[in-house]
């Protein structure tokens, strides 16, 4: 995979170094053009009208829907378009008929979106147990063996930490869950864009991820489920087979969860993003990012005055690397990188306040996150810039 060739599809890379893909990835021309084509050439609602524009829009939407499902090996389950990972998780959290005494197991690694919905269930008498990670973000499967019991109804975990980049052993955790009759929900927001994913290999019951982190538009997300167990979060137009003044019958497929007009142009754009990623090959993308991450980790650990957080082995993580410069607020480091070197990184708590408290990092970290368009030269410039910043502190 030649990142220099790929970058011609991402005009923003001509002007700056973008290392904030874990928050939102850049979008290639092909995806923007697919969205524009819908808006300018065949904009219409789907599944409603019989005129030609609606027929074309409906077919393009369904094609994108199928392509997205296929991308994660999810043909055998149900794939639902949501507006983001947060909504996808919320559908499951709100839709399961919880009973007092049920147990949920999650971890302290989680983004707020995969933590707060479960904590709120405590108000309904659901017990929530939290597994603590090691300092580098890794968790031994034995911790889940100890936490998951026959009373556990659901385990909710991130596949890859959005702070430390650590990958969790999802398959092993899935096996533990199913031994006790529990379901497994995986937050794949950080993994699906970067490594090959097949839900059959993961063994999960639910997989949630966002379009805007995988070259797609904002306002798009996905919930894949093995069984249509949760009740829909909302119902309305398009989500029923029949309705009368005495009742209704929900649609027997994904439509029951997509009440109202979905993000049609966005879903078509996400389908194009999936097509783009597939054409490059997720295995090649993963190898490229592993190489880039190794270069970044080696460089950061070689700078006196920079502390790296998370696993130090690329194979145990994705290209999300958090670090701190003692004596400087992470926001100051990020601001200097932007102003002095045109380098975009994220700083702060990354929507993981409990994890930051656990790591004793009240101000958070600086986070550099890579993607398929990141080059070795960009990493080298980041490292040189950080060396200058460290000298400022000294």
From TrEMBL:
**Domain Aminotransferase class V per the UniProt entry, residue ranges:** 17-382
Tell me which domain of life the UniProt entry assigns to the organism this sequence originates from. Answer: Archaea
Q: Tell me which InterPro entries the record gives.
A: Aminotrans_V_dom (IPR000192), Aminotrans_V_PyrdxlP_BS (IPR020578), Cys_dSase_SufS (IPR010970), Cysteine_dSase (IPR016454), PyrdxlP-dep_Trfase (IPR015424), PyrdxlP-dep_Trfase_major (IPR015421), PyrdxlP-dep_Trfase_small (IPR015422)
Example GO biological process: cysteine metabolic process
Q: What is its EC number?
A: 2.8.1.7
What catalytic activity is recorded?
A: (sulfur carrier)-H + L-cysteine = (sulfur carrier)-SH + L-alanine
Q: Cite a single GO MF annotation.
A: transaminase activity
- Needed cofactors: pyridoxal 5'-phosphate
Keyword terms of this UniProt record: Aminotransferase, Pyridoxal phosphate, Transferase
Q: Which SUPFAM superfamilies match?
A: PLP-dependent transferases
Which PANTHER family did the record assign? CYSTEINE DESULFURASE, CYSTEINE DESULFURASE 1, CHLOROPLASTIC
Q: Which family does it belong to?
A: Belongs to the class-V pyridoxal-phosphate-dependent aminotransferase family. Csd subfamily.
Report the protein name in the record.
cysteine desulfurase
- Source organism per UniProt: Methanocalculus chunghsingensis
């Amino acid at each position: 995979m030649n990142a220099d060739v790929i970058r011609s599809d991402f005009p923003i890379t001509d002007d700056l170094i973008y290392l904030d893909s874990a928050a939102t990835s850049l979008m290639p021309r092909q995806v923007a053009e697919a969205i524009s084509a819908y808006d300018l050439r065949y904009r219409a609602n789907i599944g409603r009208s019989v005129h030609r524009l609606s027929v074309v829009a409906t077919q393009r939407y369904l094609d994108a829907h199928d392509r997205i499902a296929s991308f994660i090996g999810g043909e055998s389950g149900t794939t639902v378009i949501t507006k983001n990972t947060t909504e996808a998780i919320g559908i499951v959290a709100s839709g399961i008929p919880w009973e007092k005494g049920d147990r949920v197991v999650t971890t302290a690694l989680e983004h707020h979106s995969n933590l707060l919905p479960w904590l709120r269930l405590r108000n309904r008498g659901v017990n929530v147990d939290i597994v603590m990670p090691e300092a580098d973000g890794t968790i031994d499967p034995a911790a889940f063996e100890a936490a998951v019991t026959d009373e556990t109804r659901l385990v909710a975990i991130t596949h890859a930490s959005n702070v430390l980049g650590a990958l969790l052993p999802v398959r092993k955790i899935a096996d533990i869950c199913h031994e006790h009759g529990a379901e497994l929900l995986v937050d794949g927001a950080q993994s699906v864009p970067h490594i090959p994913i097949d839900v059959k290999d993961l063994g999960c019951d639910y997989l949630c991820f966002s379009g805007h982190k995988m070259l797609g538009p904002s306002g798009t997300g996905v919930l894949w489920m093995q069984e249509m167990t949760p009740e829909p979060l909302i119902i309305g137009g398009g989500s029923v087979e029949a309705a009368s003044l005495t009742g209704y019958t929900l649609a027997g497929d994904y439509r029951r969860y997509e009440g109202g007009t979905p993000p049609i142009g966005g879903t078509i754009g996400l389908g194009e993003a999936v097509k783009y990623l597939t054409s490059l090959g997720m295995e090649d993308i993963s190898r490229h990012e592993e190489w880039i991450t190794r270069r970044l980790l080696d460089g950061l650990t070689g700078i006196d005055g920079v502390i790296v957080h998370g696993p130090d082995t690329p194979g145990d993580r994705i290209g999300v690397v958090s670090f701190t410069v003692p004596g400087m607020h992470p926001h100051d480091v990020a601001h200097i990188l932007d102003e002095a070197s045109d380098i975009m990184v994220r700083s702060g708590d990354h929507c993981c306040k409990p994890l930051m408290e656990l790591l004793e990092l009240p101000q958070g970290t600086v986070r550099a996150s890579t993607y398929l368009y990141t080059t070795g030269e960009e990493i080298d410039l980041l490292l040189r810039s950080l060396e200058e910043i460290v000298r400022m502190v000294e």
